[in-house]
Amino acid sequence: MAEFSVRVSTGDAIGAGTWNKIAVSIVGTRGETPPLRLDHPGKEFSAGTVEDFQVESPQDVGPVLLLRVHKAPLLLSAPVGAVARDAWFCRWIQLSQPRGAPLRFPCYQWLEGAESLALRAGAAKVSWADDHPILRQQRQEELQARQDSYQEALWEDWENRGPGMPPPAGSALLRKRKEKKKKGMALTRASRGLPFPLPCWKTYSPGWPRCLDEKSVKDLDLNIKYSVKKNSCFYLKVGSAFTELKLKGLLDRKGLWKSLNEMRMMLNFRMTPAAEYVVKHWQEDAFFASQFLNGLNPVLIRRCRHLPENFPVTDDMVAPMLGPGTSLQAELERGSLFLVDHGILSSVHTNVVNGKPQFSAAPMTLLYQRPGGGPLLPLAIQLSQSPGPDSPIFLPSDNKWDWLLAKTWVRNAEFSVHEAVTHLLHAHLLPEVFTMATLRQLPQCHPLFKLLIPHTRYTLHINTLARELLIAPGQVVDRSTGIGVRGFSELIQRNMQQLSYSVLCLPEDIRARGVEDIPNYYYRDDGLKIWGAVESFVSEIIHIYYPSDTAVQDDPELQAWVREIFSEGFLGRKSSGVPSALETREALVQYVTMVIFNSSAKHYAVSAGQFDSCIWMPNLPPTMQLPPPTSKGQTRPEGFLATLPPVNATCDIIIALWLLSQEPGDRRPLGTYPDEHFTEEAPRRSIAAFQNRLAQISREIRERNQGLELPYTYLDPPLIENSVSI
Hints:
Blueprint: E1 2-10, E2 21-28, E3 31-32, E4 36-37, E5 50-57, E6 64-72, H1 82-85, E7 88-96, E8 103-111, E9 115-120, H2 133-161, H3 171-182, E10 201-202, E11 211-212, H4 228-247, H5 260-266, H6 273-281, H7 285-294, E12 302-303, H8 315-322, H9 328-334, E13 337-341, E14 352-353, E15 356-357, E16 364-369, E17 376-382, E18 393-394, H10 400-441, H11 447-452, H12 459-469, H13 476-480, H14 484-498, H15 501-504, H16 506-513, H17 522-545, H18 549-553, H19 556-569, H20 585-599, H21 601-607, H22 610-614, H23 637-643, H24 647-661, H25 681-705
Antiparallel strand pairs: 1-5, 1-7, 2-3, 2-4, 2-6, 6-9, 7-8, 10-11, 12-13, 13-16, 14-15, 16-17, 17-18
């Protein structure tokens, strides 16, 4: 007879408690106890509680290896329904014996219905470090269960194709499983000993990274769904924004804006200080140029050493801006010229909005940084990739409305490239791949799982929701943007063909674009600080668990994770430079840093400013209703207004980008880890050091921002979410 003290922590989220029965089985080196009910007088397992229980084992199981948690309805005969499914969020369970230190078993997940779940003590273990057959077996069974689930999805896919196709491997087993499902006897995720959901891949659109095979958020496992709090806040925001614009009669107006003044009066919707700055300064050349550095899409600008052949800017054109004593060639050699090329938009599909064809351009913008200081300024804009009489080069010396319209076409191109490529592809679809591979290929005890799981929170939910409500045919992108879903898809396909690993690694990307020393580039300055903090943190964790490069090479789970990201996310394209295997600790540190940075800081930097940039629609028009000008001197105020998006499309996009710019409650800022997956002292010290470094970076950013007319806040660590969750 052996006595154990069991301490159980229940989550504090809405609905985290349960009325179901909870029991534990203790697995040791010499055997396993029967289920031991956790019971005391009164209600157990209420939300936010930490409770102590005493249990007695009829046998001595030896040193403890695993803890099995069993959850069952109060009434064994209860039908499958609300009572049977009563979910419980278990944070952790601690097991104590009269002798020896307590063992903490992290859980941090929901259990639904009648489930059993195997938990390991909190120490992280790489596969070759598991020193007992039972632990090795549990590890193999967990990964095998994930593969079984994947095969089950393949079987269902095969059945849907009809006769004539060979069944997938393991089909006899899978047929039995499907028969059990029909009888209400399906094995649940957790009863197979599998923590966390079982995501399967699908191709949403050819040439895109593959994604989660679910059609609706209502079908998602509780562990990857929004919490009740976050979901409620999200839809309250939707409702309030929709109601305000509906009451103003804007969502149903398909016509043009009457004037810029009408726009200014009507779009005073949830104005932020940054948005108010945009309204005041949107026509200024310095502000136009600054948005390439610190605006919504600060990743395209690059130093220009040689003018593209299809952008024939001449000395005479730019002499008024460059001033005396210099030339275009001299400034190219000096490195003071920069280029933003939206060539990816060439011949892209254009949309129809309100029954009217829309238009797109593929502009090139030349910018000048005066040596010795001063703001970055635009020198020349060409609105196509094909120079000629019908594609004039617009200049600051042109008349006001010609020049303003040319800049507005560039801002429209920024909208399309940002939303399709920088935001959707780089900051949503790729983090979804990282999330999927983490859940499928890394067991819960793996140090990389523990390191990465906070950076996957809610990513599958928000991306599934986006496929439902934003990028599905007929939804927001189709209703209100100039290139529609088909155009978005073309841009993603094109970028996937040229995407390189260096683009995803900020220090390499900055060097490749030649923008190491351009002044007032706060995205670069703050981003490199955060990259460095993440890299230092990741390096410490990696060196705790991987003593050598050989240890990296010999970790099959790590290699399977990297291989799956390469094949499913980057579609096996070797020319991308994305690794399909990792050979050294240094390479592993860079790779994991890339995953965390793009799933947190990069996403926030290109997402949080969407509303600030778009609430004054001429600064970021989602579509253009007239074709790009083919000559100068023709633009008038009424023509400028006629080119801008219609009222309803403007407001449709404003609602969407307002929602996507702010976290709707239930936040976890970068470096905040309330779910304590690591229990050892060494990684906990590394987490504390990481948090201290982020706090220091935030202080530096806020001190700098005090001296800025327009503070740059999009990489302030307390504002950055740990994961892609909105």
